[in-house]
Write a structure and sequence with these properties.
The protein is an alpha/beta fold. The protein contains 9 helices and 12 strands. The protein has a 5-stranded mixed sheet with strand order 4-1-5-12-6. A 5-stranded mixed sheet has the order 9-8-10-7-11, with helices on both faces.
């Protein structure tokens, strides 16, 4: 009897050990699975942390007067913006790693726009003057420029301001030519001043005979004459020396430094000369006289 009880007890114990072994195995598997998950999760986390963050490309908004050929105007066939300043800003953007967006605005309000943040800079044949240097961040010059008198090709050729006395003279509103004409009037020259919203309107008026002369940037006068020498002629020498620069809000030194570095690179690699030859058939981009002589 004792032997039978012993045998039964051994069987029970054996079954109990087997049951225990079976119930412990899933726990070990679950533990191993959790460890794998944690290891995988940690690897994914480390990989995510190791991935570099995508950097957004610098976007620069450029304010311009889009009716000022050959600097910026619309192509008659496509209506696309074209001109020297368009090519220049695209080359500048590539040089400093920025995307350029254009904001068209009337010239008489263009400087307010850069101060109020409507755009980051003005690239629109902006003459560098002492007043603008005081009020804004002006870049180093990228193009030579000055005021000249444009006469009708078949009319009396005015070579000096004195010869404008009693004559109808057109200027674009709020340009340095407008400021200079008012200065000459204040000094006693009896100019009959007519102000136009755009330089295109002024040249149309001269061609139509409603005015007799225009005071304008030399580069612009040269462009119109190269396209219509039968109607226009630059009859005076330079009345001022106003090289062209990029205008930014006062205190925006970070952008100013980028722009100046870009201009320098484009001058050194010959791109500025190439663009000047393309649009003006002359090199106004090298040997720029930086001594400013304005009439204001």
């Amino acid at each position: 009897m004792k032997k039978i009880l012993a045998i039964i007890l051994m069987v029970v114990l054996a079954l109990g050990m087997t049951a225990c072994a079976s119930s412990e195995k899933p726990v070990a598997e679950a533990s191993d699975s959790k460890a794998v998950e944690e290891s995988t999760s940690g690897t994914d986390s480390n990989e995510a942390e190791a991935q570099p963050e995508a950097t957004e490309k610098l976007v620069i908004k450029v304010g311009l007067d889009d009716a000022y050929p050959p600097f910026e105007y619309h192509d008659e066939a496509t209506n696309n913006l074209i001109g020297f300043d368009i090519d220049f800003t695209q080359a500048l953007g590539e040089e400093i790693g920025a995307e350029i967006e254009y904001v068209s605005t009337a010239w008489d309000g263009i400087f307010n726009g850069v101060n109020t943040g409507q755009y980051d800079m003005i690239v629109s044949c902006v003459s560098i003057t002492p007043a603008r240097i005081e009020e804004f961040e002006m870049s180093n010059p990228y193009l030579a420029n000055g005021i000249v008198i444009v006469s009708a090709a078949d009319g009396e050729q005015a070579t000096s301001i004195e010869q404008l006395a009693g004559k109808k003279v057109g200027v674009q509103l709020e340009t340095t030519a407008d400021i200079a004409a008012k200065k000459f009037i204040d000094q006693g020259t009896d100019i009959q001043l007519l102000q136009f919203d755009s330089v295109m309107e002024a040249f149309a008026a001269l061609k139509g005979g409603s005015i007799e002369y225009i005071m304008v940037d030399s580069s612009v006068g040269g462009f119109y004459i190269s396209n219509d020498s039968e109607s226009f002629n630059i009859s005076s020498g330079l009345l001022s020396n106003e090289p062209i620069g990029v205008c930014m809000a006062k205190g925006n030194t970070e952008l100013s430094e980028k722009v100046n570095a870009g201009i320098k690179a484009l001058q050194e690699n010959g791109k500025m000369t190439e663009l000047s030859q393309k649009w003006f058939s002359a090199d106004f981009a090298t040997n720029i006289d930086s001594e400013i002589k304005v009439i204001e």
